[in-house]
Design a protein that fits this description.
Mean pLDDT: 83
Number of strands: 17
Low-confidence stretches: 5-12, 27-64
Distance between the termini: 65 Å
Strand content: 15-25%
Helix content: 25-40%
Strand order of the largest sheet: 8-9-10-11-12
Number of domains: 3
Structural class: alpha+beta
């Protein structure tokens, strides 16, 4: 068993902790011990799911503007929770600490394979596009499992929890940390893995979550020749004196994400994030695509930026992006969809896909399956996206030119 106060191991028949002298509550000590023992089972239970996420990442495939697979956890709209007895309040405090500690260990264990970020203030895995809940990290069958599994898992910067939430968390550093929360009669009980625990009002909780609110209007394609487009072009032009192409350019009412390549090398794709400041766009992050966990890189700097806005070829997939594909080009020529005199103004290939545009504005897409190339014509950028979506679950849309 473990002492519920200092977490030191004690004998099964012990009455007092030999380290801190606290009286042993055997029922509670067994709960704590059981929780730690089955944590290993919790990690094993999810490893299969995470290996699937890892496989997707290794394939270098990611879709633009992906929405979360499930809605974000929300503050309860029902009447406040009934007041708890002193014993129940202590159990809730221990449950919050246990949930925070277990979730933190979970993230540490799988940090190599997963991309953990904050999304609306909650723990979120960016590669799979799913929130990580207490039910994901705490297994069934554990004593008090249902109580542990009801916790809300927050992912916030300790400095924000102190400044906006007023909680004296012992967590330090500029990065994110896991916190667990339960609704109470007066608001919410919040704890970290260091056993700092406190209660805040519902209004304070809403204020804290507002720091991470990333809903800044609809995510939409930037209109060419509009004011936003002109400002972004002006900001990027010094970086590309010989010209450049937008491979992706989307925005909401606060942020704009862009994938850009120089005209002379369509395989050299760079990612940029811009922030709107008093109706003027300013460059926030340059070259975010160079980071394997680029969503985490941007999230650490702009935690209120919607993760589904960001899009890029994964860093470990750059090697298979090329400015041309002779085999695909030969298949296009043999298809008869382009005249021999056609002059290509843009081409890019990745994996099983090849895309080209002619001086006359014709758009050609080729896809290889079972060693055979199929060639298609697309009227617009949107129709090319639709074609690719129909051919692959997560196609490399970054090979297209948006305008």
């Amino acid at each position: 068993m473990l002492c519920s106060k200092c977490k030191t191991a004690v004998a099964e028949d012990g009455e007092k902790c030999g380290y801190c002298g606290a009286k042993i509550d055997k029922t509670r000590a067994r709960k704590v011990t059981g929780g730690i023992l089955v944590f290993v089972a919790a990690l094993f239970a999810v490893v299969c799911g995470l290996s699937v996420v890892s496989a997707k990442k290794q394939a270098g495939e990611e879709t633009a503007l992906e929405a979360p697979d499930e809605p974000a956890p929300r503050l309860a709209e029902a009447a406040p929770a009934p007041e708890k007895s002193e014993t129940e309040a202590e159990e809730l405090k221990e449950a919050a600490i246990f949930a925070a500690r277990t979730a933190e260990k979970f993230c540490e264990e799988f940090s190599k394979y997963s991309v953990y970020i904050t999304n609306m203030g909650y723990l979120y895995e960016a590669s799979s596009g799913a929130y990580i809940t207490a039910r994901d990290v705490i297994p069934e069958g554990l004593p008090e499992a249902e109580l542990y599994r009801e916790a809300l898992l927050l992912y916030m910067k300790p400095s924000d929890v102190r400044a906006e939430g007023g909680l004296p968390t012992k967590k330090t550093g500029s990065g994110f940390a896991v916190f667990a929360a339960y609704e109470t009669k007066n608001g919410f009980l919040i704890a970290d893995s260091e056993e700092t625990c406190g209660e805040i009002t519902r209004e304070t909780m809403q204020k804290l979550l507002a720091v991470y609110d990333n809903k800044h209007g609809q995510l939409r394609k930037v209109i060419k020749d509009g004011s936003d487009y002109g400002q972004i072009v002006k900001l990027l032009s010094p970086k590309y004196p010989d010209g450049f192409d937008f491979r992706y350019l989307y925005k909401d009412d606060k942020y704009c994400a862009a994938l850009v390549s120089p005209t002379k090398d369509t395989a050299d794709i760079s990612g940029y994030l811009f922030e709107l400041d008093e109706e003027k766009w300013k460059l926030g992050v340059s070259g975010y695509d160079k980071y394997a966990k680029y969503k985490a890189y941007v999230n650490a700097r702009y935690p209120d930026c919607a993760p589904e806005l960001l899009f890029a070829p994964l860093a470990n997939a750059v090697g298979y992006i090329s400015a041309e594909n002779p085999e695909a080009a030969a298949a296009v020529a043999a298809s008869g969809k382009l005249p021999a005199s056609a002059r290509l103004t843009f081409q890019c290939a990745a994996g099983a896909f090849y895309y080209a545009e002619t001086a006359g504005g014709k758009k050609i897409l080729a896809h290889k399956e079972n060693e055979e190339w199929s060639v298609y014509e697309a009227e617009t950028y949107e129709s090319a996206v639709s074609l690719m979506d129909g051919l692959s679950r997560r196609p490399p849309l970054f090979i297209l030119r948006q305008y």
